[in-house]
Amino acid sequence: MDKLKAHFESRIENSVKEVKDFIAAHGDEVIGEIKVSQLYAGMRGMPALITETSKLDAEEGIRFRGYSIPELQEKLPAYPGGKQPLPEGIFYLMLMNELPSEDDVRRMSNNWARRAQVPHHVFKIIDAFPKHAHPMTQFLAGITALRTESEFQRAYREGINKKDYWEPVYEDAMNLIARLPRIAAYIYRRMYHEGDHIEPNSKLDWSGNFAHMLGFNNEEFYELMRMYMTIHADHEGGNVSAHAIHLVGSALSDPYLSFTAGMAGLAGPLHGLANQEVIRWILSMRDELGGGLPSKEQIASYVKKTLNDGKVIPGFGHAVLRKTDPRYTAQREFAMEHMPHDELFLIVSRVYEVVPDILKATGKVKNPWPNVDAHSGQLLMHYGLTQYDFYTVMFGVSRSLGTMASLIWDRVLGFPIERPGSTTTELLKAKFAAK
Ligand code: HAX
């Protein structure tokens, strides 16, 4: 057993005992009540899941195992000469529940590099798609094709004891994370660079190698990738992608199947696809207004027109957050440091000044502030990654970190199949008829 896995195994016994003891002591306590309206409103605000890797606070934003993004930027090891945390470190933190040392992070990088080989049939499946198929369609197919390698599927068929489930899930999760950048880069080069693929460089870190395989060799872009992969890694358990992965995994579907389900959810425009929609929306605004930096008044009237057409303003609003997303702020700080005069950055900044007041004035939008997707596309555009249909795939690669760490913990803690109850309007009406 490799050192990382052995270290993880050493943490299991205590954690399982801690959870069992906690349930024994407090299992009957009540933590909230459910209103009828919540059943019709996407279960908003209903605590219903245990996700150990991160927690989202409406006012403060995300904390990964208790650490905010600025704290992680300070505490997680960076690439030599760089400033941004290495995503290997946030995965280590989410999995082990402790901050990694430089050595831990290097070991994680090497471990993933050793696992990164993608079998040839995966590329053949992707190649079977017409080039105009959306990158997320190709990504979903690539991940499903990779399922031939599932250790969990094999172990289950061979009759593995349920107390050992976590081990093949750990293997699948680590292999999946290691292989996703290659699959994603393959799709990118196939679609936008005439299939001129770039071999991985196993000496690079996980996201550096991803940037390299996409075809970039600018150190600043590598730093952006490290930050991008870190801040998109997890957003507690209730968001569509994380929840889908947890739910499908609870049926003991292996990590490849579970992750595919999550990526299908990420591909929705109200979730991860919003990152491409933001750039599409900004570029059409700029084109319609004749190019250049639009004035605040011009942006305001374009925003109102979008709303009048019955569409959402992509990149704004959130189901949980009630303030500017700290993931937005981290990206804004990166832009202010590296590209303060970039025209698209100036537009994104001006949109930030204009949109919240207009959304507030609708009287119905609960969070008028920007989320992570309002900024990410601009940074990628700046370095020449202009093919915005691809952005959600990049988000997906990053989201593997939190969701796979969570899935391993789901099996360690022996969570059962998820099966909430549902009811009907008729039954609810009958229940309250007497009142
Ligand atoms: N533009 C226009 N209207 C918006 C809006 C926006 N950005 N955000 C919310 N609203 C509207 C809703 O559509 C809803 O309208 P109706 O009552 O007519 O149906 C009303 O305001 C109340 O919605 P809410 O309670 O504030 O928001 P929800 O929790 O229902 O939805 C969403 C949260 C993120 C889906 C929503 O804010 C939205 O559609 N935003 C734009 C798309 C987006 O940026 N998605 C990415 C979110 C972050 C993420 O998951 N990234 O991956």
Write a structural description.
With 435 residues, this protein is mainly alpha-helical. Helices cover 60% and strands 2% of the residues. It has 20 helices and two strands. The protein has helices at residues 3-26, 36-39, 69-75, 87-96, 102-115, 120-127, 135-146, 151-157, 166-192, 206-214, 219-231, 240-250, 255-266, 274-288, 296-308, 326-338, 343-362, 373-382, 391-412, 425-432; strands at residues 54-57, 61-64. A two-stranded antiparallel sheet has the order 1-2. A hairpin with a 3-residue loop joins strand 1 and strand 2. Helix 5 (102-115) packs across helix 9 (166-192), helix 9 packs antiparallel against helix 19 and helix 10 packs across helix 11 (219-231). The longest helix has 27 residues, at 166-192. The model has no long low-confidence stretch (mean pLDDT 97). Residues 239, 270-272, 274, 307, 312-319, 359, 364-367, 371-373 line the site of N-hydroxyamidocarboxymethyldethia coenzyme *A. N-hydroxyamidocarboxymethyldethia coenzyme *A binds at residues 239, 270-272, 274, 307, 312-319, 359, 364-367, 371-373.
Based on Cα principal axes, name the global outline. globular
Query: Architecture of the domain at 274-382, according to CATH?
Result: Orthogonal Bundle
Kindly report the name of the CATH homologous superfamily of the domain at 274-382.
Cytochrome P450-Terp, domain 2
Fraction of residues in helices?
55-70%
Q: How widely separated are the two ends?
A: 63 Å
Low-confidence stretches: none
Structural class by sheet pairing and helices = mainly alpha
Bound ligands, named by name, code or SMILES = N-hydroxyamidocarboxymethyldethia coenzyme *A
